[in-house]
Q: What sequence folds into this?
């Protein structure tokens, strides 16, 4: 039985593909739109391999409103949208902010009233500038320190204003308004891969994040890791981050969608994190342990916009969404190594036969 039909923007990307997989595994029909700028259509094959269901796919740029309209017209059963925006720098604003506005306008025209947005902990910026804000609660003042965080913060504002306006206008007109809802999911540092080793992050260029970069070092694609600063006031001098397994993160999107559909809260801003902070050196050590050898690194100066500590207070998600992380940072390291060591070319190779056989046995 199909529970509902969800549009996933950026659905062939890292977080989008895992969210699509989780939705399919929980009896949602999934329609993906993606322009494949920094992802691969092969992700659809891997989703189908793992769960036996295939998302419907449309190659569409999120900034193209007319194309989005055609998708909604082709699938009038879509009742919710999960948005994952890409990461491309003046392009950040055009794609992330402009694309989100295009999506919301098209959703409004086709009466699609629930939106789950993949926001980011970067909207908080440096939470240490306020007392008692580590781990970071949702009431921590917003103050992003880089372009990516500023685009996420802008989109949160756009969604908030849009949903509130829809509810207020309908309420004033004496019409039903509770159907308009938005969840702003401020995820912390997603990492890891599918435990089967058949799905993972496959960036087309140089990865931005620590664990994928360590994966490239471990496979010999990069000579060493660059550690940006060891002069932070932390336990070992490196920055602290809350690493969340991508499988847990995808389940958080599912929990948020269920919450919107059942509780109709209007707007909800919620942290998705483990509440456990790890330093860069601790992550290097954990991943090196999984690989079985020390991985080389050089310490270089801090990057502009980097902050000391991004650790979540996830209690709101725990209580309201009945969601919490089930997998540890060590699991993410093990799953990432299984992915990169077995798929050195990512999605540009066939899945290894031994992993396919293991998957078949696990389903038997």
A:
């Amino acid at each position: 039985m199909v529970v509902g039909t969800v549009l996933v923007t950026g659905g062939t990307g890292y977080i989008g593909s895992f969210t699509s997989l989780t939705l399919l595994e929980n009896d949602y029909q999934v329609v993906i739109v993606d322009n494949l700028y920094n992802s691969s259509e092969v992700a659809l094959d891997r989703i189908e391999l793992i769960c036996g269901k295939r998302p419907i796919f449309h190659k569409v740029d999120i900034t193209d409103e007319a194309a989005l309209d055609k998708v909604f017209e082709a699938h009038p059963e879509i009742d919710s949208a999960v948005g994952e925006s890409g990461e491309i720098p003046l392009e950040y604003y055009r794609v992330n902010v402009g694309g989100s506005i295009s999506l919301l306008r098209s959703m409004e025209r086709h009466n699609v009233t629930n939106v789950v947005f993949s926001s980011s902990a970067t909207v908080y910026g440096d939470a240490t500038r306020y007392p008692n804000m580590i781990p970071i609660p949702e009431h921590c003042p917003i103050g992003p320190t880089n372009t990516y965080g500023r685009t996420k913060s802008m989109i949160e504002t756009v969604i908030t204003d849009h949903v509130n306006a829809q509810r207020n206008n309908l309420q004033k007109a004496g019409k039903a308004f509770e159907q308009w809802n938005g969840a702003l999911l401020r995820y912390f540092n997603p990492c890891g891969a599918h435990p089967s080793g058949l799905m993972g992050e496959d960036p087309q260029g140089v990865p931005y994040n620590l664990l994928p970069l360590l994966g490239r070092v471990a496979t010999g694609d990069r000579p060493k890791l660059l550690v940006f600063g060891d002069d932070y006031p932390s336990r070992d001098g490196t920055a602290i981050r809350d690493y969340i397994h991508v499988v847990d993160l995808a389940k958080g999107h599912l929990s948020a969608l269920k919450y919107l559909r059942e509780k109709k809260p209007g707007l909800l801003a919620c942290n998705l994190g483990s509440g456990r902070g790890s330093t860069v050196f601790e992550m290097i050590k954990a991943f090196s342990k999984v690989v079985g050898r020390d991985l080389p690194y050089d310490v270089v100066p801090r990057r502009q916009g980097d902050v000391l500590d991004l650790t979540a207070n996830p209690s709101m998600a725990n209580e309201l969404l009945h969601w919490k992380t089930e997998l540890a940072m060590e699991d993410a390291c093990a799953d990432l190594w299984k992915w990169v060591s077995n798929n050195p070319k990512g999605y540009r190779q066939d899945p290894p036969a031994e992993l396919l056989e293991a998957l078949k046995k696990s389903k038997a």
User: Anything to note?
Assistant: The chain has one domain: 5-363. The domain at 5-363 is CATH 3.40.50.720 (Rossmann fold). The first strand starts at residue 5 and ends at 9.
